[in-house]
Amino acid sequence: MARKSRKNQQNPLKKQTVSSDMKLYRTGVYARLSVEDSKNPDCDTIENQLNLVREYVESKPYLKQTAEYVDNGISGTRFDRPEFTRMIEDMRAGKIDCIVVKDLSRLGRNYLETGDYLEKIFPFFGIRFIAVTDGYDSIHASTADDGMIVPLKNLINEAYAKDMSKKVSTAIEIKQQQGKFIGCRAAYGYMKNPEDKNQLLVDREVSHIVVRIFECKAEGMGNASIARMLNEEGVLSPMRYKYEKGLTKNRRYAESLWNDGTISIMIVNPVYIGDMEQGMQKEVMYKGIKKHNVEKDKRIYVAGTHEPIVSRELFDRVQKLVGERKQKALESRGKYAQVKRKENTFDNILFCGDCGGRLKFCRKIKHLRAEDKVYYSYICPNSEAYGEKFCKKKRIKMQDLEEAVETAVRMHIKLFLDTREILQNLNKSEQAKRIKTDIKREIADTRGRLERSQSMNCNLYNDYTDGLLNERDYLFAKKKYVLEAENLAQRLSELSEMQLTYEEEYAGSHDMEVVMEKYADFEELSSEMVHAFISRIVFYGGKQIEIQFAFEDQVQKLVEVAESRKGEIACIQQAV
What we know:
This protein has 576 residues and is α/β, with parallel strands linked by helices. It is built from 18 helices and 17 strands. The relative contact order is 0.07.
């Protein structure tokens, strides 16, 4: 194959002349850096990536940057990245129609999924994809040139990611076997050695609190009682202590309190007797093994790695007590196996109005002569751990909650069905059809003006390169046409949305209509139904509850459209 002349090779950042009919692309810039890359001093940085891509976009008159997405410290083998997900949502919503990255590996290092985006998803949504340093532009890509090169590069990127994962996993496991600490935060009562981050030192400031917790547990105190005692005495919880020390910047820990869960984890952790247990969770990306919990006998345990805080005798006493209570709980688990358990209808959506914690689903059985009577209720468990000072005790019977929620859901469905019927009848009127025709006419006019504005913007660059416009006039005119195009695009979007509301069968969100129709004639509440309708329930005590419906905004919007439609039609009728 003949070597190409350097004269024929184009600099990807060189300004180019465009034809007057060339489309102006709303461009999203994407940059990504993994944790492994950030630790490599020779690797690229987020800033360098963004600068290179921004310069490329600015050099192309047919590209208009409208958004920027940055995933920092996230592996390219994953596609559930926050900013990548936001970019795809914007793509689906039509906010961008071009994506520019530094190179293909920034998009992803998973061969199959990256290929799906390049070959299926992006083309389906009409997305132009550009990888600057790889010289790849989907609008110019051909099967002959890129059909083999792009998949090969994706395959190399995936192989690189797997090799890096294998090296990192092996290095971590070796350190764990040597008894070196590899966690991001030391356990409460310890701190990392400033001179060796893999070595733990006793934090004398709070180590006595750890000893006290073990002593209280050995004396028979419950976890919730210990937590309540510490909260009432004003002892900072582990995460609040780290926040106060500047070891974490997350504001959500600024007011965190002790709870029974924190105590239960601490009292079984062998770190407090000077032993290191690591590898409780494992993930091996290069083998395709996702993160999962590891059984205790398969974890890495090394004794005598650091100074203990608690004596082995005290630790063993606590473990014996914990084991006895666990065994007792296991034995009593099947005691009422014959009593049918009721489904937790409000699982994960019922919260306390005071502390914000999830309410606990409780079952109480009373022994009667004829049969065992079962009572279900929801309580806030945090009042036990935090104390009345932080959260008031509250309880609500499951039956009372179900009745209140059922009434609210039926009203919600009725409001939707009645509003839909009113709006659809209004849309069938001659007045509404006339308005719809006017909107269609305005859409066609606005689309034509937008195309002319984009064409004029492209012509400006040609006039500038031909010397017909100086730089100052070019930049002024370009700013004017870009702003005009943005306003017209916004108006076009508004008109399209408005036109949709005049369709005879319009009922708002399709997902909302499907759910409403499915449960329109429900007989009793089910967990599936509750979770389809409700995103959150807040209980304030007594029978005061607040329900946040999943489609609350959409129903309200439908009501507003119906009210507005009534007014529009009334005005037309009065005018006639």
